[in-house]
Amino acid sequence: MGTVQKRRNRPKPETRRLKAAEISEKLDKLAHNNAKRNNRLLKEVFIHPLRFEDISLKALVEQKKAGRSRSWPKNAQTEVYWGANSSHMAVDKDNLPLALHFPGYLGKTGNMFKYCLLRSFAKAVGVSIRKGADANNRDSLEGYPYLNKESYISGVIQLVGSWTAIGHSNDEPTPSRDVLKSAHAFKLSMECLRELAFTSRAIDDLLSKIDPAAYATLHEARKRLRRVNAAYAALTSLDPTYLHGRSIIFNRATRGHLDIRDPAEVLTPILVVGKFVKGGELRIEKLGLTMSYLPGTLIFIRGSVLPHEVSVFSGGKRISIAHFIHKALLVQVGISDIPMSPYTESPQYVPLPL
After folding, report:
1. Does the structure show a pLDDT above 90 at 16?
2. Is 329 helix (H, G, I), strand (E, B) or coil?
3. Domains in the chain: how many in total?
4. φ and ψ at 34, to 5 degrees?
5. 213: domain range?
6. Torsion over CA of 187, 193, 195 and 199, rounded to 10 degrees?
7. What is the DSSP annotation of 299-317?
8. How far apart are CA 281 and CA 256, in angstroms?
9. Organism's domain of life (predicted)?
10. CATH of the domain at 332
11. Are 303 and 283 in contact (CB under 8 A)?
12. Maximum Cα–Cα distance across the chain
């Protein structure tokens, strides 16, 4: 009897279609507003970028690909701090972006929504302390300052549509073990991806305007990978970006490291959410650059050629979402070189009047 009553109370198909259309219209409007905000933010950071005249990103990329040590300026860089009151960008001598910094990108509501979403996700599927980008053979417990503190989650979830194991770059790419460890974990992972998709769409829009040449090449790689890998195609139906995955990192500080599996050319996004109030800066020592890393901040960095670290925080809890692309997957679909655009080629760049 209860089932019959539920069926009677279920909205009719035409009602469900109308509601779906209303939701779609609202999401499109929000996406349009986000694109307008992205345009404004980029126009601001393009006006007065921090320029490193003695650094060539192209040279760093070539050295990395050739397996040679990167050459850095002999003189120490002047120390620069980017605070949380405005957005920033650093470029090399050829106007190629090295790093971008957008404090408060998510806003207070967006930050808390993502924070609660990811904490609930972690509690439901579990987290692991494992090898990190800054570790050798395994994750260092020293990176988890609140490991034994009650109510703190410590560890990493790999929310990955497709990757290969380290040392097995020619193997068939598969989703991460965290996604596939159980039917329940798979369901929750897909729900989490769907909830993250709106922010992912905004990040994708930013990438298309910061580096249009790389964006076009990497979305072509996505199309090719979707054609040859059904699992990746299925999972990325919920993800609008060309990114291969996300490391969701709970209450961790990272030592200086490079993103060794990422292509040398790419800008990768790092998003931070949480309730902490102090510390936790991201530092790029070779540039003498330290930037605020408070909840809601979005950062883009050439993490494969610029060593970076994230310091310890206090006064609450932190979750970082490190997005990534793995060069092994690009090679498998015939892409080994990625073009890079100077910011002056962005449609949002407006030359200053002489």
Report:
1. no
2. helix
3. 1
4. -65, -40
5. 2-345
6. 180
7. EEE-TTTS-EEE--EESS-
8. 12
9. Eukaryota
10. 3.60.130.30
11. no
12. 80
Distance, C-alpha 316 to centroid of its chain? 22
Token code pair at residue 142: 């020293």
Joined together, the tokens standing for residue 302 give: 């050439």
Single-letter amino acid, residue 276 = F
How many CA atoms does the CB half-sphere of 289 hold within 13 Å?
22
Provide the 3-class DSSP secondary structure of residue 130: coil
Pairing of strands 308-310, 282-284: antiparallel
Q: Tell me how crowded residue 50 is: count the other CB atoms within 10 A of its CB.
A: 16
Residue 290 in contact with residue 79, Cβ under 8 Å?
yes
* Dist. CA 269–CA 307, nearest whole Å: 15
> At 7, which amino acid appears?
R
Asked if residue 327 is part of any domain, the answer here is yes
Give me the residues paired with residue 321 across strands: 248, 271
Which pair of tokens denotes residue 308?
A: 């970076």
Is 352 within the bounds of a domain?
no
Q: Rounded distance, CA 288 to CA 79, Å?
A: 5
* Rounded-to-integer distance, Cα 146 and Cα 251, Å: 7
In a domain, 354, yes or no: no
How far apart (Å, rounded) are the C-alpha atoms in residues 226 and 230?
Answer: 6
Return the residue matching tokens 């950071």: 45
CA distances from 220 to 214, 335, 336 (A): 10, 9, 12
List, for residues 275-334, the tens digit of each pLDDT value.
998 888 999 999 999 999 999 999 999 999 999 999 988 889 999 999 999 888 999 899
Determine, yes or no, domain membership for 351.
Answer: no
Q: Three-class SS of residue 128? A: strand
Averaged pLDDT score across all residues of the chain: 87
Q: How far apart are CA 301 and CA 73, in angstroms?
A: 19
3-state secondary structure of 241: coil
Strand residue runs (E) in the chain: 50-52, 80-82, 88-92, 97-102, 155-160, 245-250, 254-257, 268-274, 278-279, 282-284, 289-291, 298-301, 308-310, 313-314, 318-324
Q: Tell which wins on pLDDT, 26 or 205.
A: 205
Q: What's the CA angle centered on 134, arms 130 and 139, to 5 degrees?
A: 20
Q: What is the pLDDT of residue 90?
A: 98
Gap between the Cα atoms of 26 and 192, Å rounded: 20
